[in-house]
Amino acid sequence: MQCVICIKSYSFxxxxxxxxxxxxxEKKAFVLSKGLLRAGTPFxxxxxxxxxxxxxxxxxxxxxxxxxxxxxxLY
Length: 75
What we know:
Layout: H1 4-25, H2 30-40, H3 43-51, H4 56-74
Helix pairs in contact: 1-2, 1-3, 2-4, 3-4
């Protein structure tokens, strides 16, 4: 069974990809769309690494990277 945050991060990444494709198709703000794609898609990988981390420190480190990406995406 997958964790709720894993499912939500996957859904978020898919929405980021849809946003990227929309912006590229509309020929708008290519640089910004690439930033959205870069910042919005690694959530799931970082959360997956955190969940399977070898220590509490490893878990916290991977989640802090995810939070940084979330802030970039929000910006």
